[in-house]
Design brief:
By secondary structure, the chain is an all-alpha fold. The chain contains 2 helices and no strands.
Length: 51
């Protein structure tokens, strides 16, 4: 999810498409939060680890 967010941010920046930039930021933030909770041992959505 983090990687997809970064790719969308890059595409949005290069192509000057604001919605892709915004979606990329949102996906990066959600990916970091899910990864942190997974590292702390909390199961999110039935999964204990997110990579």
């Amino acid at each position: 999810m983090i990687l997809l967010g970064v790719v969308l941010m890059i595409i949005g920046f290069v192509a000057a498409i604001q919605i892709l930039w915004t979606l990329g930021i949102i996906l990066v933030v959600i990916g970091v939060v899910v990864a942190l909770f997974g590292a702390m041992g909390h199961a999110i959505g039935g999964r204990r680890h997110y990579y």
